Amino acid sequence: MEVVSAPTAKKMAVQLEKHGDIRIDEYYWLNERENKEVLAYLEEENKYYDTLTYHTKSFQKELFEEMKGRIKEDDTSLPYKLNDYWYITRYETGKEYPIYSRKNKILEAPEEILFNCNELAKRHEYYNLRGVSVSPDNKLAAFGTDTIGRRQYHIQIKNLETNEIYDDKVDNTTGSAVWANDNKTLFYTKKDPVTLRSDKIYKHVLGTSSEEDELIFHEQDDTFNTFVYKSKSRKYIIIGSYSTLTSEFQLLNADNPNGDFKLFSKRERGLEYSIYHYGNNFYILTNKDNATNFKLMKVGEANTSSENWEEFIEHRKDVLLEDIEIFKDYYVLTERDNGLNKLKISRWDGSNSYYIPFDNETYVAYSYVNPDFDTKTYRFVYNSMTAPYAIIDFDMESKEQEIKKEQEVLGDKFNKENYRSERLWASARDGKKVPISLIYHKDTKLDGNSPLLQYGYGSYGSTSDPYFSTARLSLLDRGFIYAIAHVRGGEYLGRNWYEDGKLLKKTNTFTDFIDCSKFLIANKYTSKEHLYAYGGSAGGLLMGAIVNMEPELYNGVIAAVPFVDVITTMLDDSIPLTTGEYDEWGDPNKKEYYDYMKSYSPYDNVKAQSYPNILVTTGIHDSQVQYWEPAKWVAKLRSYKKDTNTLFLYTNMDAGHGGASGRFKALKETAQEYSFLLDLEGKIIN
């Protein structure tokens, strides 16, 4: 067999100095996106990957067809009603993209196609349509499209009666727009063209040039982003501004689009809140008065500043209050208690209050689309690691529930009784108990010899819920155990769990993950020879940290679009997200944070040691984690590592942070990742 040499990126030392500390970056030049040498290097890495994984190509195809075969290709969403129309999203057999449609008043009415994304995507390698917003008179729809994968959307307007797409076009937006009640005025959010920060709210009047659009609000603080939406009551257009720790809102009556927005309550650093309109009041979900896990407050429409807020539901130190859904007679609270989702139904008059019962420890339950205000039916989603999702209509008065749609897993192999799920608690080195959600096939032996894929994220308070996955069955059916480590930095155990894994406590995220790995090995779920780790984006940072800290624990690691060059990125305020991230990671312009980041930044801590087998993936147009971070990291790993283990960098030359845009193209990426793991386990038979 021909010996193929790994690519070698040239070294061009650049000296980076901050706080009197000098770092030498030999691969800094890889950030030149238009440089032909950079593109050639990325293509060389792709060729290296393709050559060394050629023996898996037919298996990848088989795996892709297997995963695709479980999906109902001609699937249709559960219709929801809004303003006299039933809205439906459906797919057709063999097609990558959704078709958005609606029916007037009754489901038996003729279908009106709003957008057939399969037709719209024909001329593009990447296509994403989002933010469909129908005017109050049901005649027009604003929509956003991205054909690059960099999350810079064009907003256009379609006449739903004639199917004409108007000349009105706005570039470089978030893709979402909000109609005022006059059916001709739109409010939308533009991005800074360099940093991609959402920083300006504009007003567009139908039929006028976008160059004439009026700037309504400019968020000057570069640690904040801004957005605009409409209240569920349809009474208010609302502008929101937020950073990691602080939020602020402005209001405008939707009947008066030419009026002035009124400040709801001025920003106070550390005060987070979100608002919900009902009747003559607003309800505020907030951490005011040190309500770490949030509480619900109430204020009248006339005087909305924070000194007028009154407590409606008190703060509980052990229960995280995540959301509220408002109806005419009832409201529904989404809570998280000891990591578990809870849905609490209450009458506004206080006469009745109860929880929807669930009997599992590895489940997910959350609100579905509930646009109807005057109804006694609450629609929510339920699934567990072993059971497909179900969309359930719950009668808040009678407490009766009806499954309206259940995810179909096609093929004759799937039986949910074949799988077992558990919730385990690993001891972290500081004594904290870290939850692990885990699933495996009933025939998989728990004797320490089974392969196990451990997933982690652990940033931004984002909770990795124990959800069901049809693609994951391809691992479980081949003897893999799958585990989610609910490490600090997420909010699985409440807001304090998040606070204990950010800023100057960030390393708790990494050590929690490692301690979960050691727990799983000690309890015979797997062994070092069969343990694998997976994380993407900030979870990719987690992967980079653990392979520097304890590389011998893992046989293989997948790092998808990994954030690994922490200091250099956080010192470059021209890169998307940087300034808004200071409250998450810290500001390295301050020496305390610089030194702490340097202690864990994966790129800065690569050293001469053996590393596990590693697959790194990225997208050339990624707006969240620039492609050069994983590219530089892989180049440095190649230079330092003292082993002969596999190291791959694969760059999608057409996509961004979210990967491929089609539903089946995304499965090909999953097949690529799974084949990497299964090959290491010797489970690929061609």
Features of this protein?
12 helices, 686 residues, alpha+beta
Describe the structure.
The chain has 686 residues and is an alpha+beta fold. It has 12 helices and 37 strands. It has an 8-stranded mixed β-sheet with strand order 30-31-33-32-34-35-36-37, with helices on both faces. The chain has a 7-stranded antiparallel β-sheet with strand order 7-8-9-10-11-12-13, with no helix packed on it. Helix 2 (57-69) packs across helix 12 and helix 6 crosses helix 7 (538-549). The radius of gyration is 25 Å and the shape is globular.
Secondary structure: elements and pairs:
Elements: E1 14-18, E2 21-25, H1 36-52, H2 57-69, E3 80-82, E4 85-90, E5 99-104, E6 112-116, H3 117-120, E7 128-134, E8 140-146, E9 153-159, E10 165-179, E11 185-191, E12 198-205, E13 214-218, E14 225-230, E15 236-242, E16 247-253, E17 262-265, E18 273-278, E19 281-286, E20 295-300, E21 310-313, E22 319-326, E23 330-337, E24 340-347, E25 353-355, E26 363-367, E27 377-384, E28 390-395, E29 401-406, E30 419-427, E31 433-441, E32 452-455, H4 473-476, E33 481-485, H5 495-499, H6 507-522, E34 531-536, H7 538-549, E35 556-560, H8 566-570, H9 582-585, H10 591-600, E36 613-619, H11 628-640, E37 647-652, H12 663-680
Parallel strand pairs: 32-33, 32-34, 34-35, 35-36, 36-37
Antiparallel strand pairs: 1-2, 3-4, 4-5, 5-6, 7-8, 8-9, 9-10, 10-11, 11-12, 12-13, 14-15, 15-16, 16-17, 18-19, 19-20, 20-21, 22-23, 23-24, 24-25, 26-27, 27-28, 28-29, 30-31, 31-33
